[in-house]
Structure to design on (226 residues):
């Protein structure tokens, strides 16, 4: 069965510092990978996705992620965070067919 | 335009009430989803409609009844809910074809059951 592990439940960081949110998945077959962001009291917004092709994926708001098949990871990075990036971030994976499997989420807290 | 809309934004209901949540998208997406999200947790899949037919029901109690009247609209009918059903209910949709695994979410309906 597929599973997704987000290795950090909370990540505090200062404004303008770089950040990496870690995500590992378990699957023996090809998967599709996603990162979503959820701001307080809002729905989920798609940040970026890996379906195929280049393993370095660029998303919105300056975020990027790298698909590493050998390490079954899909870590999210941003070189310089802003206060407005404070939110919950979810990594998700699917084999197809409509079932997204989410990680438990990482709360990113950006401090001035 | 990747917008999924949901109404109402907030809903308070008693355990004997009947209410409905509505989700709409006009992007030509042919799959639509209902999720339930409790505080500080990831969304949990409830139902999937593909081409207006129910394709996945994740063993959801019968007090939740989905309906897909057409390709743009998805409803969730609520009846005799319990306080533990209080949560954020999220709708999502995904396009046909090669991008079909990408789900776009609405803003959610925050439900409180008293």
């Amino acid at each position: 069965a597929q599973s997704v592990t987000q290795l950090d439940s909370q990540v505090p960081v200062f404004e303008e510092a770089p950040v990496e949110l870690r995500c590992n998945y378990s699957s023996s077959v090809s998967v599709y990978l996603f990162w979503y962001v959820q701001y307080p009291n809002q729905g989920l917004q798609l940040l970026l996705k890996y379906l195929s092709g280049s393993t370095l994926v660029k998303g919105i708001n300056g975020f990027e992620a790298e698909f590493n098949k050998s390490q079954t990871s899909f870590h999210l990075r941003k070189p310089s965070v802003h206060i407005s990036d404070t939110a919950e971030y979810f990594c998700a994976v699917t084999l197809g067919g409509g079932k997204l499997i989410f990680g438990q989420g990482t709360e990113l807290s950006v401090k001035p | 335009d990747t917008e999924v809309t949901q109404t109402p934004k907030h809903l308070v209901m008693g355990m004997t009430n009947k209410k409905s949540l509505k989700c709409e998208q006009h992007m030509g997406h042919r799959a639509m989803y209902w999720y339930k999200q409790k505080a500080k947790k990831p969304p949990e899949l409830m139902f999937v409609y593909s081409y207006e037919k129910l394709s996945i029901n994740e063993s959801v109690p019968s007090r939740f009844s989905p309906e897909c009247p057409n390709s743009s609209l998805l409803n969730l009918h609520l009846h005799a809910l319990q306080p533990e059903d209080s949560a954020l209910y999220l709708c999502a949709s995904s396009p046909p074809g090669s991008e079909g695994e990408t789900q776009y979410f609405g803003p959610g309906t925050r439900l409180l059951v008293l």
Notes: The first strand of chain B starts at residue 4 and ends at 7.
